[in-house]
Design goal:
Length: 257
C-alpha cells in the first residue's frame, strides 16, 4: 500500500491518502520515511491513537508511535483535539504540497469546544496556540496538551482557577508547524517568564522537554499499556483532570521554592 501511495504521488494528478489504526503506523514506517525523503504529497490518517482503545491490551495500544513519527524529518504530524481542529488539520493536509502529513485521531468521545469561549481552531495552522488565557492575563502555569487530552487541561484549568491559580491553556497539535513560526510568536505562546509548564499527552514523553525546559514536566506514558476498559486505563495512568491539577500544583510549589 505504501509503495502504491508514493507511486501515485510521484505520478501526480491525485492526492493519495490511506487510513488505518495508529498502532499499524509501525508497518507503514518505511514508505512514510520514503515519502518524507522524496518530499511527496501523501496524507496518512491514523485513528485509535492511545491506550484508550482498551481491552485489546498493550499489543494494540500505541505508546511510542507519536515519538516515532515526529522523529522522521520532513513529516508533518498533526494531532487535533476536536472536530474544529480536525477540519483545519484536513485543510492543512490538503494544502501542503512538498511533504507528507500524518493526521493522528482519537476513537474517544471528545467534546467539541465552544469557540465563542475558547480561541479559534484556526490556531492549529500555527502548530500551537493559546486556547484560553489566565483570568488575569498573567499565567503562573501553562498547561499544554494534544488530541483527546486537551479536554483534560480544560477541566483542570477550571479547577485551578477556583484555587486562584492563574493558568494558561495551550493546544499544541503539531510540533512541526509550531517550529516554523517566528521566534516572536513562539515566545508569545511560551514566554520565558513562565517556567512552570505541564504537558499532558497519552504517549511517550520523549522530545517534549525542548518546549517545557528544565522546570517543566510531562504526564505521559514511558511504558506499555494494559488490557482494561479505556476509561479505567486513563484513570490508572493519571490521565484525569484531578491528577493534572495535582501535578501542576506540585510543580508550581517546587519551582517557587
Amino acid at each position: 500500500m505504501g509503495a502504491i501511495l508514493n507511486g501515485l504521488a510521484v505520478h501526480g494528478g491525485v492526492i493519495p491518502y490511506a487510513a488505518t489504526f495508529f498502532i499499524f503506523s509501525d508497518y507503514m514506517r518505511p514508505p512514510i520515511r520514503l515519502a518524507a525523503m522524496m518530499a511527496q504529497r501523501v496524507i496518512y490518517i491514523f485513528t485509535h491513537d492511545s491506550i484508550g482503545v482498551g481491552e485489546d491490551g498493550a499489543t494494540h495500544q500505541p505508546v511510542e508511535q507519536l515519538a516515532n513519527l515526529r522523529a522522521i524529518p520532513r513529516l508533518m504530524v498533526i494531532r487535533p483535539c476536536d472536530a474544529n481542529e480536525t477540519a483545519f488539520a484536513w485543510r492543512v493536509a490538503i494544502e501542503t504540497q512538498d511533504q507528507p502529513v500524518a493526521l493522528v485521531l482519537t476513537r474517544q468521545d471528545v467534546p467539541t469546544l465552544d469557540r465563542n469561549y475558547y480561541a479559534s481552531a484556526e490556531g492549529l495552522r500555527r502548530g500551537a496556540y493559546i486556547l484560553a488565557e489566565a483570568a488575569n492575563g498573567r499565567p503562573e502555569v501553562i498547561l499544554i496538551a494534544t488530541g483527546s487530552e486537551v479536554n483534560l487541561i480544560v477541566e483542570a484549568q477550571q479547577q485551578l482557577q477556583k484555587q486562584n491559580i492563574q493558568t494558561r491553556l495551550v493546544s499544541m497539535p503539531s510540533w512541526e508547524l509550531f517550529d516554523t513560526q517566528t521566534e516572536e510568536y513562539r515566545r508569545l505562546v511560551f514566554p520565558t517568564s513562565v517556567r512552570t509548564r505541564l504537558v499532558v499527552e497519552a504517549g511517550a514523553t520523549q522530545g517534549w522537554h525542548r518546549y517545557i525546559g528544565e522546570r517543566g514536566d510531562v504526564i505521559g506514558l514511558d511504558h506499555f499499556g494494559a488490557s482494561a476498559p479505556g476509561p479505567a486505563l486513563m484513570r490508572e495512568f493519571g490521565f484525569t483532570a484531578e491528577n493534572v491539577c495535582k501535578r501542576a500544583l506540585a510543580l508550581l510549589e517546587k519551582n517557587n521554592a
